[in-house]
Amino acid sequence: MSARPVLTPARLVTAGAVLAAVVALTLAPRAIAWPARTLVLDALDHLPPSWSALVFGAGADVALNVAFFVPLGAAVALLLPLRWAPASVALCALVSFAVETLQAGIPGRVPDADDVLSNTIGAAIGTVVVIAMRVAARGGRAARR
To answer: What is the pLDDT of residue 46?
Structure first.
């Protein structure tokens, strides 16, 4: 039985696009990033009240920072073999740390160590989803044999 390739062109393009979006929105001047933030918050206002309490319990900025890194954690986890997928959390934490460090030199942007924690939690959620899906798919293939 041969293992499926991990570094497929589609996965590489997806991870690159997600990383580019993260970098663009987190390093863009506030005048560009703020309208995007407002757009997302306006869309999230349509959640049912019980979901809003869950999503915004720690505040809108924390919720956005967590949600922003879920796709990056998932995309990076998909690039790695299953046994190495948890390393995507550390890689995303490094990306977040780099972003926060670079924000110090951008007028109107305020680096915050708490953002690194929130981003890392989001990356962990995306990673766990990918690992769970891959393990479930493996179990399905084994049951068909």
So the answer is: 74
Task: Decide: 131 and 86 in contact? Cβ < 8 Å.
Answer: yes
SS3 state at 109: coil
Q: What is the pTM of this model?
A: 0.81
pLDDT tens digit sequence for 81-125: 999 999 999 999 999 999 999 999 988 888 999 999 999 999 999
Q: What's the token pair of residue 7? A: 């570094």
Residue positions counted in the chain: 145
Intra-chain end-to-end CA distance of the chain, in Å: 11
Q: What is the pLDDT of residue 86?
A: 95
Which of 143, 131, 136, 42 is CA-nearest to residue 78? 131
Give every CB contact of residue 54 below 8 A, 6+ residues apart in sequence. none
Q: Where are the beta strands (DSSP E) in the chain?
A: none
**65, pLDDT greater than 80:** yes
How many other β-carbons are positioned within 10 Å of the β-carbon of residue 44?
Answer: 16
- Spell out the residues 6+ positions from residue 96 whose beta carbon is closer than 8 angstroms to its own: 69, 115, 116, 119, 120, 123
Q: Which two tokens stand for residue 57?
A: 């319990």
